[in-house]
Design a protein that fits this description.
This protein is α/β, with parallel strands linked by helices. The protein is built from 19 helices and 12 strands. Strand 8, helix 6 and strand 9 form a beta-alpha-beta unit. About 40% of the residues are buried.
Length: about 475
Amino acid sequence: MKNKLKYLIIIFVALIFTITLTSCENKTKLYVATSPDYAPYEFIDSRKSNDDKYVGADISLAKYIAKKQNKVLELQIMGFDELLTSVQTGKSELAISGFTYSASRAENYEMSISYYDDGEGDQVVITKTSTKDKFSTFEQLNNKDTKIAAQSGSVQYDYVKEQLPNATIEQIGNLADAFTQLDGGKVDAIAIAGKVAKVKLEGSTKYSLCDFSFDVTGRTGMFAISQKGNVDFINSVNEIIKEVKEKGLFNEWIEEANKIVAELENTSDAIFIVKVWNMFTNNFGEFMKGLGITLLLSLCGVVFAIILGILLCLMNLSKSKILHYISQAYIEVIRGIPLLLQLTVIFLIMPRGMPKFVTCVIALIINSGAYQAEIFRSGIQAVDNGQMEAARSLGLSQAKTMWKVILPQAVKNILPALGNEFVSLIKETSLASTFYVGDLMTVKTIITATTYDALTPYVIIGLIYFVITFTLSKLIKYFEKKVTC
């Protein structure tokens, strides 16, 4: 029994060590964090794959800085509200994502000189054309019955909070969700950068700009952000930005990005069911690729979590009080912390060069292992005590009895619970999309970022999840009958 436990510990430690070793970072890389939902600065070209799909003027700037520093650009894709945390913890060297000036940012981070300010630095408000007359003045927005969407962590959120204190702020993760909420009547208006609004409203009759804007005196321009105290690095970035401005490169990158946006613009007004079908067929390859990564995440997570679960279970049932309390503490802590928080913390503490897919797998293993430990424990304890006594009386050791007699019977008892854990894990992988690992929910983000249609991809992905989980549930029930026969 002790030898088996020792081998399990060795296997699990070796697994983690191997994963970590293979992720050793290349010191010639430049790690830049960005949130690709802000056309024309950073967005996703769904016609391309891998990192090539991340395009926009800010992405071009990041590539230029990396080239000038003789480094390889490593884009770190995440939600906008996570960018500054990534910089603060040193996970990212630089964040370039349409950041404008704010006093708190200047105080807590190193900010570059402005790399773009074309005189259109207005921060504006968009509403439906049908309700524009309802908000003809700034004061009409400033009441508690008015809901204004603003991206979490953005300067637009600060403007709404400062200049429209009576309005209700609806924090959103990305602009696509904001437009979906505006379409559905969940919010009355959206606070947005003027340049982004111009791109979105071009040729559109559905939305309109309100006839006023926020006061941005002294706060125009866009800046790159680095960790506080990283003065030499930000100074080197400033020299490159000066060169970019002198050559007028950013204006060229904006024009290129606007052309891509125009090519990707979806102007279809088809019936919803037809719209769903067209989106699914047009992006079939992306959906299938996302499904493959979702299933791979789930499979890796559940297989290695079984090893961890058995290990924790045996520690829990061990006569050693130390092993028992370590197992109990692990299980209680992991089960008491949300998976999204675990994913975020693990992402931040892992080596900078570790692939995001590997980071997510580790988080899923750690999380699922705690639940599987309890599943195995209940299965083992459900086996009649007489089984252990009978095996020992026949001369089997405790270890052989556990592996040859008890565990096989326990597995039969817990098969439904293990199957349900796998199904649950498939759905939980959706949280990995926070780090753009390429799963189904990441595909949704890719499509939404270019079409500003959040509802249709949600419906498609929901149906895919249902088909997969329903099929798996039926297969699990089939195997249950086979095992119990």
